[in-house]
Amino acid sequence: MDGFALIWGCLLAIVLAQVLAYILCHHRLPLFIRATYEWGKLLDENTSAFNRKWLVPKSCNKQQKFLCYQIIIQVKEVFGYLDSANYYTIKTSSIILSLVLLSLQTFRRLYECLFISKFSQSAQMHLGHYLLGGMFYILVNLTIISDGSFLTSDGDTFRLKDLSTATNIIGVCIFCWGSLHQHRCHNILAQLRVGSSSHNNYGVPRGDWFNYVSCPHYLSEIIIYFSIGFILSLDHQSWWLLLAFITTMLSLGAVQTNQWYYQNFSNYPEDRRAIIPFLL
Protein backbone atom coordinates (compact mmCIF):
# COMPACT_ATOMS: atom_id res chain seq x y z
CA MET A 1 0.00 0.00 0.00
CA ASP A 2 1.49 3.40 -1.00
CA GLY A 3 1.41 6.55 1.09
CA PHE A 4 -1.75 7.98 -0.44
CA ALA A 5 -3.64 4.73 -0.02
CA LEU A 6 -2.64 4.81 3.65
CA ILE A 7 -3.86 8.40 4.02
CA TRP A 8 -7.25 7.70 2.46
CA GLY A 9 -7.53 4.45 4.38
CA CYS A 10 -7.03 6.32 7.67
CA LEU A 11 -9.53 9.03 6.71
CA LEU A 12 -12.03 6.35 5.71
CA ALA A 13 -11.58 4.65 9.09
CA ILE A 14 -12.27 7.96 10.86
CA VAL A 15 -15.47 8.54 8.88
CA LEU A 16 -16.62 4.97 9.50
CA ALA A 17 -16.09 5.59 13.22
CA GLN A 18 -18.24 8.71 12.92
CA VAL A 19 -20.95 6.71 11.18
CA LEU A 20 -20.88 4.14 13.97
CA ALA A 21 -21.03 6.89 16.60
CA TYR A 22 -23.95 8.52 14.80
CA ILE A 23 -25.88 5.24 14.71
CA LEU A 24 -25.19 4.17 18.29
CA CYS A 25 -24.95 7.28 20.43
CA HIS A 26 -25.38 10.46 18.38
CA HIS A 27 -27.45 12.44 20.92
CA ARG A 28 -25.22 11.44 23.82
CA LEU A 29 -22.02 12.70 22.22
CA PRO A 30 -20.50 16.06 23.26
CA LEU A 31 -21.25 18.86 20.80
CA PHE A 32 -17.59 19.34 19.90
CA ILE A 33 -17.49 15.74 18.64
CA ARG A 34 -20.81 15.96 16.81
CA ALA A 35 -19.57 19.10 15.09
CA THR A 36 -16.88 17.03 13.37
CA TYR A 37 -19.53 15.37 11.19
CA GLU A 38 -22.20 18.08 11.13
CA TRP A 39 -22.09 21.38 9.30
CA GLY A 40 -24.32 24.24 8.16
CA LYS A 41 -27.94 23.92 9.22
CA LEU A 42 -27.23 20.60 10.95
CA LEU A 43 -25.19 22.24 13.73
CA ASP A 44 -26.97 22.83 17.02
CA GLU A 45 -28.04 26.48 17.26
CA ASN A 46 -27.32 26.39 20.99
CA THR A 47 -23.66 25.54 20.55
CA SER A 48 -21.68 26.77 23.54
CA ALA A 49 -19.19 29.62 23.35
CA PHE A 50 -16.34 27.14 23.80
CA ASN A 51 -17.47 25.07 20.82
CA ARG A 52 -18.08 28.15 18.67
CA LYS A 53 -14.36 28.89 18.86
CA TRP A 54 -13.86 25.87 16.61
CA LEU A 55 -16.41 27.00 14.00
CA VAL A 56 -15.85 29.10 10.87
CA PRO A 57 -18.39 30.54 8.40
CA LYS A 58 -19.37 27.99 5.78
CA SER A 59 -18.86 30.62 3.07
CA CYS A 60 -15.13 30.17 3.71
CA ASN A 61 -15.53 27.24 1.33
CA LYS A 62 -14.76 29.77 -1.41
CA GLN A 63 -11.22 30.12 -0.13
CA GLN A 64 -10.64 26.39 -0.33
CA LYS A 65 -11.32 26.34 -4.06
CA PHE A 66 -8.43 28.75 -4.70
CA LEU A 67 -6.04 26.12 -3.38
CA CYS A 68 -6.84 24.06 -6.45
CA TYR A 69 -5.42 26.70 -8.76
CA GLN A 70 -2.13 26.62 -6.92
CA ILE A 71 -1.81 22.85 -6.89
CA ILE A 72 -2.82 22.43 -10.54
CA ILE A 73 -0.27 25.03 -11.65
CA GLN A 74 2.43 23.31 -9.59
CA VAL A 75 1.67 19.74 -10.68
CA LYS A 76 4.75 19.58 -12.92
CA GLU A 77 6.96 20.58 -10.00
CA VAL A 78 5.47 17.83 -7.86
CA PHE A 79 6.62 15.13 -10.26
CA GLY A 80 10.23 15.57 -9.23
CA TYR A 81 9.42 14.95 -5.58
CA LEU A 82 7.66 11.65 -6.01
CA ASP A 83 9.51 8.38 -5.54
CA SER A 84 10.24 7.06 -9.03
CA ALA A 85 11.40 3.73 -7.64
CA ASN A 86 7.83 2.55 -7.09
CA TYR A 87 5.93 0.47 -9.61
CA TYR A 88 3.33 2.47 -11.51
CA THR A 89 0.50 0.95 -13.51
CA ILE A 90 -1.75 3.78 -14.76
CA LYS A 91 -1.39 5.07 -18.32
CA THR A 92 -0.18 8.61 -18.90
CA SER A 93 -3.25 9.46 -21.00
CA SER A 94 -5.57 8.40 -18.17
CA ILE A 95 -3.64 10.52 -15.66
CA ILE A 96 -3.74 13.62 -17.87
CA LEU A 97 -7.42 13.21 -18.73
CA SER A 98 -8.27 12.76 -15.05
CA LEU A 99 -6.36 15.93 -14.13
CA VAL A 100 -8.21 17.85 -16.85
CA LEU A 101 -11.60 16.63 -15.61
CA LEU A 102 -10.71 17.43 -12.01
CA SER A 103 -9.65 20.92 -13.11
CA LEU A 104 -12.99 21.43 -14.88
CA GLN A 105 -14.82 20.26 -11.76
CA THR A 106 -12.80 22.65 -9.62
CA PHE A 107 -13.35 25.65 -11.88
CA ARG A 108 -17.10 24.98 -12.08
CA ARG A 109 -17.42 24.61 -8.31
CA LEU A 110 -15.46 27.81 -7.78
CA TYR A 111 -17.76 29.63 -10.20
CA GLU A 112 -20.83 28.27 -8.40
CA CYS A 113 -19.47 29.25 -4.98
CA LEU A 114 -18.69 32.78 -6.13
CA PHE A 115 -21.69 33.57 -8.34
CA ILE A 116 -24.52 31.07 -7.76
CA SER A 117 -24.60 29.62 -4.25
CA LYS A 118 -26.23 31.74 -1.57
CA PHE A 119 -24.74 30.66 1.74
CA SER A 120 -26.70 31.15 4.92
CA GLN A 121 -25.18 33.95 6.96
CA SER A 122 -25.48 31.81 10.07
CA ALA A 123 -24.24 28.54 8.54
CA GLN A 124 -20.99 27.35 10.08
CA MET A 125 -18.61 24.45 9.85
CA HIS A 126 -16.06 22.89 12.19
CA LEU A 127 -12.51 24.16 11.81
CA GLY A 128 -11.46 20.56 11.20
CA HIS A 129 -13.80 20.40 8.20
CA TYR A 130 -12.33 23.61 6.83
CA LEU A 131 -8.74 22.39 7.17
CA LEU A 132 -9.62 18.98 5.73
CA GLY A 133 -11.25 20.73 2.78
CA GLY A 134 -8.04 22.59 2.06
CA MET A 135 -5.92 19.45 2.30
CA PHE A 136 -8.48 17.44 0.34
CA TYR A 137 -8.06 19.40 -2.89
CA ILE A 138 -4.30 19.08 -2.65
CA LEU A 139 -4.39 15.36 -1.85
CA VAL A 140 -6.81 14.58 -4.69
CA ASN A 141 -4.43 15.97 -7.31
CA LEU A 142 -1.45 14.20 -5.81
CA THR A 143 -3.41 10.97 -5.54
CA ILE A 144 -4.16 11.00 -9.26
CA ILE A 145 -0.52 11.35 -10.30
CA SER A 146 0.86 9.10 -7.56
CA ASP A 147 0.41 5.95 -9.66
CA GLY A 148 1.26 7.30 -13.10
CA SER A 149 3.62 5.43 -15.40
CA PHE A 150 5.10 8.73 -16.61
CA LEU A 151 6.81 9.13 -13.24
CA THR A 152 9.27 6.38 -14.08
CA SER A 153 12.12 6.51 -16.56
CA ASP A 154 10.59 3.69 -18.61
CA GLY A 155 7.00 4.96 -18.44
CA ASP A 156 4.83 5.37 -21.53
CA THR A 157 4.69 8.73 -23.32
CA PHE A 158 1.50 10.70 -23.91
CA ARG A 159 -0.14 10.39 -27.32
CA LEU A 160 -3.33 12.24 -28.23
CA LYS A 161 -4.88 9.15 -29.82
CA ASP A 162 -4.63 7.33 -26.47
CA LEU A 163 -7.46 9.54 -25.19
CA SER A 164 -9.99 8.00 -27.58
CA THR A 165 -10.34 4.66 -25.79
CA ALA A 166 -13.79 3.33 -24.89
CA THR A 167 -12.98 3.58 -21.18
CA ASN A 168 -12.02 7.24 -21.45
CA ILE A 169 -15.06 8.13 -23.56
CA ILE A 170 -17.47 6.40 -21.17
CA GLY A 171 -15.73 8.01 -18.19
CA VAL A 172 -16.05 11.49 -19.72
CA CYS A 173 -19.76 10.88 -20.45
CA ILE A 174 -20.37 9.83 -16.83
CA PHE A 175 -18.44 12.90 -15.65
CA CYS A 176 -20.52 15.26 -17.82
CA TRP A 177 -23.75 13.59 -16.66
CA GLY A 178 -22.86 14.02 -12.99
CA SER A 179 -21.59 17.58 -13.52
CA LEU A 180 -24.74 18.66 -15.35
CA HIS A 181 -27.02 17.44 -12.59
CA GLN A 182 -24.84 18.87 -9.83
CA HIS A 183 -24.93 22.27 -11.52
CA ARG A 184 -28.71 22.08 -11.87
CA CYS A 185 -29.12 21.11 -8.22
CA HIS A 186 -26.90 23.94 -6.98
CA ASN A 187 -29.00 26.35 -9.04
CA ILE A 188 -32.19 24.95 -7.50
CA LEU A 189 -30.79 25.42 -3.98
CA ALA A 190 -29.73 28.98 -4.80
CA GLN A 191 -33.17 29.82 -6.21
CA LEU A 192 -34.76 28.98 -2.85
CA ARG A 193 -33.25 32.20 -1.48
CA VAL A 194 -33.87 34.46 -4.48
CA GLY A 195 -36.12 37.33 -3.39
CA SER A 196 -35.84 36.35 0.25
CA SER A 197 -35.14 39.09 2.77
CA SER A 198 -32.73 36.78 4.54
CA HIS A 199 -30.16 34.28 3.29
CA ASN A 200 -30.87 32.28 6.43
CA ASN A 201 -34.19 31.01 5.08
CA TYR A 202 -34.51 27.37 4.09
CA GLY A 203 -37.08 25.76 1.85
CA VAL A 204 -37.96 22.45 0.26
CA PRO A 205 -36.00 22.04 -3.00
CA ARG A 206 -37.88 20.51 -5.92
CA GLY A 207 -36.97 19.52 -9.45
CA ASP A 208 -34.32 17.45 -11.19
CA TRP A 209 -32.89 14.77 -8.84
CA PHE A 210 -34.44 16.52 -5.84
CA ASN A 211 -37.61 14.67 -6.81
CA TYR A 212 -35.91 11.46 -5.67
CA VAL A 213 -33.35 12.32 -2.98
CA SER A 214 -32.67 15.09 -0.48
CA CYS A 215 -29.00 15.54 -1.45
CA PRO A 216 -28.64 14.98 -5.20
CA HIS A 217 -25.66 17.34 -5.23
CA TYR A 218 -23.90 14.81 -2.99
CA LEU A 219 -24.94 11.94 -5.24
CA SER A 220 -23.64 13.74 -8.32
CA GLU A 221 -20.36 14.46 -6.50
CA ILE A 222 -19.91 10.73 -5.94
CA ILE A 223 -20.72 10.07 -9.61
CA ILE A 224 -18.14 12.65 -10.71
CA TYR A 225 -15.37 11.07 -8.65
CA PHE A 226 -16.47 7.61 -9.76
CA SER A 227 -16.10 8.69 -13.40
CA ILE A 228 -12.48 9.66 -12.76
CA GLY A 229 -11.90 6.33 -11.05
CA PHE A 230 -13.44 4.59 -14.06
CA ILE A 231 -10.85 6.29 -16.26
CA LEU A 232 -7.97 5.48 -13.90
CA SER A 233 -9.06 1.80 -13.70
CA LEU A 234 -9.30 -0.54 -10.71
CA ASP A 235 -5.49 -0.68 -10.51
CA HIS A 236 -5.44 2.78 -8.91
CA GLN A 237 -6.10 1.56 -5.36
CA SER A 238 -5.57 4.97 -3.76
CA TRP A 239 -8.35 6.52 -5.83
CA TRP A 240 -10.89 3.88 -4.85
CA LEU A 241 -10.08 4.41 -1.18
CA LEU A 242 -10.58 8.13 -1.81
CA LEU A 243 -13.94 7.37 -3.43
CA ALA A 244 -14.96 5.17 -0.48
CA PHE A 245 -14.09 8.05 1.87
CA ILE A 246 -16.13 10.56 -0.16
CA THR A 247 -19.09 8.19 -0.48
CA THR A 248 -19.19 7.41 3.24
CA MET A 249 -18.77 11.03 4.33
CA LEU A 250 -21.41 12.41 1.95
CA SER A 251 -23.83 9.58 2.74
CA LEU A 252 -23.61 10.40 6.45
CA GLY A 253 -24.25 14.07 5.70
CA ALA A 254 -27.16 13.19 3.41
CA VAL A 255 -28.87 11.00 6.01
CA GLN A 256 -28.64 13.81 8.58
CA THR A 257 -29.89 16.37 6.08
CA ASN A 258 -32.82 14.15 5.14
CA GLN A 259 -33.80 13.83 8.80
CA TRP A 260 -33.48 17.59 9.26
CA TYR A 261 -35.88 18.22 6.38
CA TYR A 262 -38.45 15.82 7.84
CA GLN A 263 -38.18 17.48 11.25
CA ASN A 264 -38.52 21.04 9.93
CA PHE A 265 -41.03 20.70 7.06
CA SER A 266 -44.34 18.96 7.64
CA ASN A 267 -45.01 18.85 3.90
CA TYR A 268 -41.71 17.19 3.03
CA PRO A 269 -42.21 14.34 0.48
CA GLU A 270 -42.39 11.06 2.38
CA ASP A 271 -40.92 9.00 -0.45
CA ARG A 272 -37.80 11.13 -0.85
CA ARG A 273 -34.67 9.24 0.17
CA ALA A 274 -31.40 10.72 1.44
CA ILE A 275 -28.88 10.11 -1.35
CA ILE A 276 -29.63 6.92 -3.31
CA PRO A 277 -33.07 6.79 -5.00
CA PHE A 278 -35.39 4.15 -3.49
CA LEU A 279 -32.60 2.76 -1.24
CA LEU A 280 -30.89 5.18 1.17
TrEMBL record:
<dbReference type="GO" id="GO:0160198">
    <property type="term" value="F:polyprenal reductase activity"/>
</dbReference>
<feature type="transmembrane region" description="Helical">
    <location>
        <begin position="209"/>
        <end position="232"/>
    </location>
</feature>
<keyword id="KW-0521">NADP</keyword>
<feature type="transmembrane region" description="Helical">
    <location>
        <begin position="239"/>
        <end position="262"/>
    </location>
</feature>
<dbReference type="Pfam" id="PF02544">
    <property type="entry name" value="Steroid_dh"/>
</dbReference>
<dbReference type="GO" id="GO:0102389">
    <property type="term" value="F:polyprenol reductase activity"/>
</dbReference>
<keyword id="KW-0812">Transmembrane</keyword>
<dbReference type="InterPro" id="IPR001104">
    <property type="entry name" value="3-oxo-5_a-steroid_4-DH_C"/>
</dbReference>
<feature type="domain" description="3-oxo-5-alpha-steroid 4-dehydrogenase C-terminal">
    <location>
        <begin position="164"/>
        <end position="280"/>
    </location>
</feature>
<dbReference type="GO" id="GO:0006488">
    <property type="term" value="P:dolichol-linked oligosaccharide biosynthetic process"/>
</dbReference>
<comment type="function">
    <text>Plays a key role in early steps of protein N-linked glycosylation by being involved in the conversion of polyprenol into dolichol. Acts as a polyprenal reductase that mediates the reduction of polyprenal into dolichal in a NADP-dependent mechanism. Dolichols are required for the synthesis of dolichol-linked monosaccharides and the oligosaccharide precursor used for N-glycosylation. Also able to convert testosterone (T) into 5-alpha-dihydrotestosterone (DHT).</text>
</comment>
<keyword id="KW-0472">Membrane</keyword>
<dbReference type="GO" id="GO:0047751">
    <property type="term" value="F:3-oxo-5-alpha-steroid 4-dehydrogenase (NADP+) activity"/>
</dbReference>
<keyword id="KW-0443">Lipid metabolism</keyword>
<dbReference type="GO" id="GO:0016095">
    <property type="term" value="P:polyprenol catabolic process"/>
</dbReference>
<comment type="similarity">
    <text>Belongs to the steroid 5-alpha reductase family. Polyprenal reductase subfamily.</text>
</comment>
<dbReference type="InterPro" id="IPR039698">
    <property type="entry name" value="Dfg10/SRD5A3"/>
</dbReference>
<comment type="pathway">
    <text>Protein modification; protein glycosylation.</text>
</comment>
<dbReference type="GO" id="GO:0005783">
    <property type="term" value="C:endoplasmic reticulum"/>
</dbReference>
<protein>
    <recommendedName>
        <fullName>Polyprenal reductase</fullName>
        <ecNumber>1.3.1.94</ecNumber>
    </recommendedName>
</protein>
<keyword id="KW-0560">Oxidoreductase</keyword>
<dbReference type="GO" id="GO:0005789">
    <property type="term" value="C:endoplasmic reticulum membrane"/>
</dbReference>
<keyword id="KW-0256">Endoplasmic reticulum</keyword>
<feature type="transmembrane region" description="Helical">
    <location>
        <begin position="127"/>
        <end position="145"/>
    </location>
</feature>
<keyword id="KW-1133">Transmembrane helix</keyword>
